[in-house]
């Protein structure tokens, strides 16, 4: 009797469960393993596959490439898997990567993927028994193949157990993100070849998001196939005995006459530099064929990374959410330098890091400067030092200066501003040693040389320099641009001073006040302003701007409500501009209580609404903490606790909005600890509402203990604080204090203590000062 597809699917799941070695999921001592499926549903855009902290390879299943929901290549709601590719973006709002897809299967070879709606029309396979833990993934496919994945820094490892009989591996080098069915390929050249030692090598150049990025791979097999067939453009088969193929849409099929006789292991090294780099990375990371050893090593690395935060109290779901968020906060930026230190420079040349250094990609800086990089300064100081040095080198190398959103040697220029200066200024303020002066010439050009090349992120710089704001009738997203350029001026002023350029620092410091020029103090809102100095008269803070066209907006992924609170570095200046403490507090109240209505042309990024506050996007994520600047931290405490509870779930749809390379997760981690960096450059943390009864942070060789005895769902308010046993009346604490370690103790309450943090001297610093 020939088994049915349903019978094969069921037997594969049972067989995989029986054959898998027992292994505990990597976890810290917080008592909860991460749930890697959090964020894989909804629009979280995360993936569940195998990677190591900040690793080059992200080996994960792909379920779709044509929908915004599958920017990462995967969506939990899909019912079929295309295969397993080696590179992914975590939580981004735009897609790329998915390099080197491997499709294990039994039965007739199919070269086209088919659709989500009709997986039987292609090589897609339904699946069951899906399991993911840090550094490891497994699933049972409907053709009877049992798949397992694990990784090192630069190699992906596959283990496939086939049913009895013939089987094959399809290597699809034409697979990429957001290539709609029937669309012209976005690959302009590619090659595949089998080498004399049985290694399959290949490359392709892709023009998806990062235009013209290169990927190279070298793939080895524990069992050599009985034959290999190559397929060129339009799936044309190459002559029998061919050892390779060139073109654009390329595929190779490895045929095994008795695939089920023993597991087939695949190990694949990748490189963004060249074929030599891919081979060297494979050789360095794959000196044996022991899949389980690689899995154990990956698990151990994650256990160490997650053990930096240990928690007690809270609910079981909250502990899982925390460990999952800490995991997602350490998958990017991703390693891009090869084992020999070479990496694709942003200047188009091959660069080499110094001995002991590393280069990284996937810096989502518009998002991650806010909470991710500040979190890493606490939980991953060694990696932070590597990234700071890397940011300095790549800033000096890039023709566009400070980094924005680089991906494998290509600056995408995505989002606005040049926020690569912020983690540098923050690191300098926190005392992290580095050659900051080496980045200054490039920062100077970006700041003052209006003839320097621009990408989309820095449009309107010259107008900003002459008018002191970006006019709404000349450049889109003008209100947000003005404020974010001003914030980068604030960060750059610190770096100028560090580089020994005090006059430039003073000039930048003055220019960092340009945010005032797009906030109309008379109405108390961020408002589009035209080149002649006039304001948009038909102003509506719900709208995205004065132009009705959907592609022209005056704010970046925000409206007038959210952009009004965009200022992070001069809070007391903003309070005065709005009309003082009482008016500012009332304006914050109005933000959180306004009707949650958006115009029809609002982008999906504006999500997670509480009133007009949008937690699912970055521009106003610090706004809940602004109450502390007007002496009402109890309102911060209530709102932060609400957001931690309502916006994060132990569920695939458990992240509101995109995770954005860990930014949404880092917000939760820091807020759950009880504090948040409203302005990372200030190197201070504003208190919120801790979620757990006890937290221990490993700060390198030091330890920070955060206590909140008796804390529970009905005690969101902070009645009192002590630091190392002494009363602490401030509603904030400096990084300098926390970094030396000690015990921060919160006394929690069901009712607010309105006097805590009320005094001017106890309010957080901003623009280098407190209001006292």
Q: Gist?
A:
This protein is an alpha+beta fold and 772 residues long.
Note down, in words, how this protein is organized:
The chain has 772 residues and is α+β, with helices and mostly antiparallel strands. Helix content is 25%, strand content 20%. It contains 18 helices and 35 strands. A hairpin with a 4-residue loop joins β6 and β7 (146-151). α4 packs across α17, α8 (421-429) packs across α11 (478-498) and α11 (478-498) packs antiparallel against α12 (502-511). The radius of gyration is 26 Å and the shape is globular. The protein starts with a helix and ends in a 23-residue tail after the last strand. The relative contact order is 0.09. Residues 1-25 have low confidence and may be disordered.
> Helix proportion of residues, in percent?
25-40%
Structural class: alpha+beta
Give the number of DSSP strands: 35
Coarse shape? globular
Mean pLDDT: 94
Q: How is the biggest beta sheet arranged? A: 10 strands, antiparallel
N-to-C terminal Cα separation, in Å? Answer: 85 Å
Number of helices: 18
* Strand content range: 15-25%
Widest sheet: strand ordering:
2-5-6-7-8-16-12-11-10-14
Multimeric state of these chains? single chain
From the alpha carbons, calculate the radius of gyration and give it in angstroms.
Answer: 26 Å
* Low-pLDDT segments, ≥5 res: 1-25
List the helices and strands and how they pair.
Layout: H1 5-19, E1 60-62, E2 80-81, E3 83-85, E4 101-105, E5 125-133, E6 136-141, E7 146-151, E8 155-161, E9 167-172, E10 187-194, E11 200-206, E12 213-221, E13 227-231, E14 244-247, E15 251-256, E16 264-271, H2 275-285, H3 291-306, E17 309-312, H4 316-328, E18 334-335, E19 342-344, E20 350-352, E21 360-361, H5 365-368, H6 372-379, H7 381-397, E22 406-407, E23 410-411, H8 421-429, H9 440-448, H10 461-467, H11 478-498, H12 502-511, E24 519-520, E25 525-526, H13 560-564, H14 571-578, H15 581-593, E26 609-610, E27 613-614, H16 633-646, H17 663-673, E28 675-676, E29 684-687, E30 694-699, E31 702-707, E32 717-723, E33 726-727, E34 732-734, H18 735-739, E35 742-749
Parallel strand pairs: 31-35
Antiparallel strand pairs: 1-3, 2-5, 4-9, 5-6, 6-7, 7-8, 8-16, 9-15, 10-11, 10-14, 11-12, 12-16, 13-15, 17-30, 18-21, 19-20, 22-23, 24-25, 26-27, 28-29, 29-34, 30-31, 32-33, 32-35
């Amino acid at each position: 009797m020939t088994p049915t597809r349903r019978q094969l699917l069921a037997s594969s799941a049972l067989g995989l469960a029986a054959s898998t070695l027992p292994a505990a999921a990597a976890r810290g001592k917080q008592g909860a393993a991460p749930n890697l499926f959090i964020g894989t549903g909804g629009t979280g855009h995360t993936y569940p596959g195998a990677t190591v902290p900040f690793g080059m390879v992200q080996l994960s299943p792909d379920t779709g490439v044509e929908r915004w929901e599958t920017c990462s290549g995967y969506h939990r709601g899909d019912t079929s898997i295309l295969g397993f590719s080696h590179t992914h973006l975590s939580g981004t709002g735009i897609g790329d990567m998915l390099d080197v897809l491997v499709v294990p299967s039994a039965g007739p070879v199919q070269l086209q993927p088919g659709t989500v709606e009709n997986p039987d029309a292609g090589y897609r396979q339904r699946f069951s028994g899906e399991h993911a833990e840090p550094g490891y993934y497994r699933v049972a496919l409907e053709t009877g193949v049992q798949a397992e994945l694990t990784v090192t820094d630069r190699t992906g490892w596959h283990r496939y157990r086939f049913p009895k009989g013939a089987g094959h591996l399809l290597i699809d080098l034409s697979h990429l993100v957001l290539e709609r069915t029937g669309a012209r390929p976005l690959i302009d050249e590619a090659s595949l070849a089998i080498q004399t030692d049985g290694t399959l090598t290949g490359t392709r150049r892709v023009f998806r998001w990062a235009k013209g990025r290169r990927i190279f791979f070298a793939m080895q097999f524990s069992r050599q196939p009985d034959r290999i067939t190559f397929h060129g453009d339009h799936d044309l088969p190459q002559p029998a005995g061919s050892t390779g193929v060139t073109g654009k849409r390329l595929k190779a099929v490895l045929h095994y006459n008795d695939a089920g006789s023993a597991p087939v292991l695949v190990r694949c090294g990748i490189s963004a530099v060249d074929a030599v780099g891919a081979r060297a990375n494979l050789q360095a990371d794959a000196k044996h064929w022991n899949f389980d050893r690689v899995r154990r090593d990956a698990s151990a690395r994650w256990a160490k990374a997650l053990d930096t935060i240990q928690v007690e109290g809270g609910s079981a779901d909250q502990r899982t959410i925390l460990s999952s968020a800490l995991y997602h906060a350490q998958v990017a930026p991703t390693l891009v330098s090869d084992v020999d230190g070479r990496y694709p420079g942003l200047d188009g040349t091959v660069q080499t890091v110094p001995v002991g250094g590393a280069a990284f990609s996937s810096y989502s800086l518009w998002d991650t400067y806010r909470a991710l990089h500040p979190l890493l300064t606490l939980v991953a100081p060694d990696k932070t030092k590597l990234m700071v040095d890397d940011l300095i080198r790549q800033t000096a190398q890039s023709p566009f200066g400070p980094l924005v959103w680089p991906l494998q040697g290509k600056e995408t220029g995505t989002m606005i501003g040049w926020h690569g200066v912020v983690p540098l200024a923050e690191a300098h303020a926190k005392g992290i040693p580095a050659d900051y002066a080496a980045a200054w010439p490039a920062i100077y050009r970006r700041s003052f040389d209006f003839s320097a090349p621009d990408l989309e992120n820095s449009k309107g710089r010259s107008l900003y320099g002459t008018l002191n704001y970006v006019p709404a009738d000349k450049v889109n997203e003008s209100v947000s641009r003005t404020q974010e350029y001003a914030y980068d001026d604030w960060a750059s002023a610190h770096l100028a001073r560090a580089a020994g350029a005090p006059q430039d620092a003073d000039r930048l410091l003055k220019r960092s006040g340009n945010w005032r020029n797009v906030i109309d103090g008379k109405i108390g809102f961020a408002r589009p302003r035209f080149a002649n100095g006039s304001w948009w008269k038909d102003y509506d803070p719900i709208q995205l701007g004065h132009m009705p066209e959907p592609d022209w907006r005056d704010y970046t992924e925000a409206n007038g409500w959210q952009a009004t609170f965009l200022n992070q570095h001069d809070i007391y200046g903003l309070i005065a501009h709005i009309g003082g403490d009482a008016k500012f507090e009332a304006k914050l109240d109005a933000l959180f209580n306004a009707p949650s209505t958006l115009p029809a042309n609002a982008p999906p990024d504006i999500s997670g609404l509480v009133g007009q506050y949008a937690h699912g996007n970055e521009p106003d994520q610090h706004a809940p903490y602004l109450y502390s600047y007007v002496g009402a931290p109890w309102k911060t405490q209530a709102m932060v606790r609400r957001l931690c509870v309502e916006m994060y779930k132990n569920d695939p749809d458990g992240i509101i909005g995109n995770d954005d390379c860990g930014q949404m997760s880092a917000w939760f981690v820091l807020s759950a600890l009880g504090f948040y960096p409203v302005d990372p450059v200030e190197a201070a943390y504003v208190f919120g509402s801790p979620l757990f009864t006890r937290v221990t942070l490993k700060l390198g060789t030091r330890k920070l203990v955060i206590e909140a005895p008796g804390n529970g769902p009905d005690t969101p308010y902070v009645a009192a604080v002590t630091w190392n046993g002494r009363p602490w009346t401030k509603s904030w604490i400096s990084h300098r204090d926390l970094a030396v370690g000690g015990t921060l103790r919160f006394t929690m309450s069901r009712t607010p203590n309105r006097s805590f943090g009320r005094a001017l001297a106890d309010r957080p610093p901003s623009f280098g000062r407190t209001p006292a």
